[in-house]
């Protein structure tokens, strides 16, 4: 195991996991899903900043 | 303009996303299985206090005052000690991060994308509020292994090696978003 993490503390990555992390930080590109999540989150944030809350209609994932 | 407590009469069942409040009803929050008991305990006994003393900040999905889901965020850091490789050198061995400490959805409100909505909010908070003002490169989470596909669907990447881990560390590089 090459990862140590705690609730509020530091996450330490070593060995092959560190190499994988290093490669991602250098060469990784954001996925479409991450971009879509950010877009959704921005709308929520804007509403929270303006009104103090964001209202969401309940929706099913099925 | 509709208020938080008075939804439009024609609306379908809706919930509100906002910061946790001291008068929120957290007592009805239920989880499925003893394995997730700590998530219930955190909301019942710790979230409000930690929110007030600025140790972690909790955002909730609520119907009225009843909390049906929550996400708690705090500052963190990822240290990495990369062995010598052909990769371009990074002159730092640590990256500042926002950590998703807890994420839970009430057992009665699963499969309605409430957790997904809260993670989208966490991503936007880290990207729009923290990164430009404080400096923050990553959003990280110690995911439950069963939740790895969920976080992958939000763009997170597993840092852990292929070994079986109960709580794989995952991250999203918000610096590149």
Question: Mind sketching the topology for me?
Answer:
The complex is a heterodimer of chains A (62) and B (177).
Chain A (H helix, E strand, L loop, with lengths): L2 E2 L5 E5 H13 L4 H20 L2 E4 L5
Antiparallel strand pairs in A: 1-2
Chain B lengths: L13 E6 L17 H9 L1 H6 L4 E7 L2 E16 L12 E12 L8 H17 L7 E5 L5 H6 L3 E2 L10 E5 L4
Parallel strand pairs in B: 4-5
Antiparallel strand pairs in B: 1-2, 2-3, 3-4, 5-7, 6-7
Describe this protein's structure.
The complex is a heterodimer of chains A (62) and B (177). Chain A is α+β, with helices and mostly antiparallel strands and 62 residues long. Chain A has helices spanning 15-27, 32-51, and strands at 3-4, 10-14, 54-57. In chain A, strands 1-2 form a two-stranded antiparallel sheet. The longest helix of chain A has 20 residues, at 32-51. Chain A starts with a strand and ends in a 5-residue tail after the last strand. The mean pLDDT of chain A is 84. Chain B is α+β, with helices and mostly antiparallel strands and 177 residues long. Chain B is 21% helix and 30% strand. Chain B has a seven-stranded mixed β-sheet. The chains are: A alpha+beta (62), B alpha+beta (177). At the A-B interface, strand 2, helix 1, helix 2 and strand 3 of A face strand 1, strand 3, strand 4, helix 3 and strand 7 of B.
Termini separation of chain A comes to 36 Å
Question: Rg of chain B to the nearest angstrom?
Answer: 18 Å
Q: Helix proportion of residues of chain A, in percent?
A: 40-55%
Number of helices of chain A: 2
Largest sheet of chain A: 2 strands, antiparallel
- Reading the helices and strands of chain A in chain order gives EEHHE
Read across the widest sheet of chain A, the strand sequence of neighbours is 1-2
Helical percentage of chain B? 10-25%
Number of strands of chain B: 7
Q: Report the radius of gyration of chain A as a whole number of Å.
A: 18 Å
Mean pLDDT level of chain A = 84
Greatest interface by residues involved: A-B, 51 and 71 residues
Q: What spatial form of chain A do the alpha-carbon principal axes imply? A: elongated
| Low-confidence parts of chain A | none
Q: Please write the string of helix (H) and strand (E) elements of chain B.
A: EHHEEEHEHEE
Mean pLDDT of chain B: 89
The secondary structure category of chain A is alpha+beta
- Spatial order of strands in the largest sheet of chain B: 1-2-3-4-5-7-6
Tally the beta strands of chain A: 3
3D shape of chain B: globular
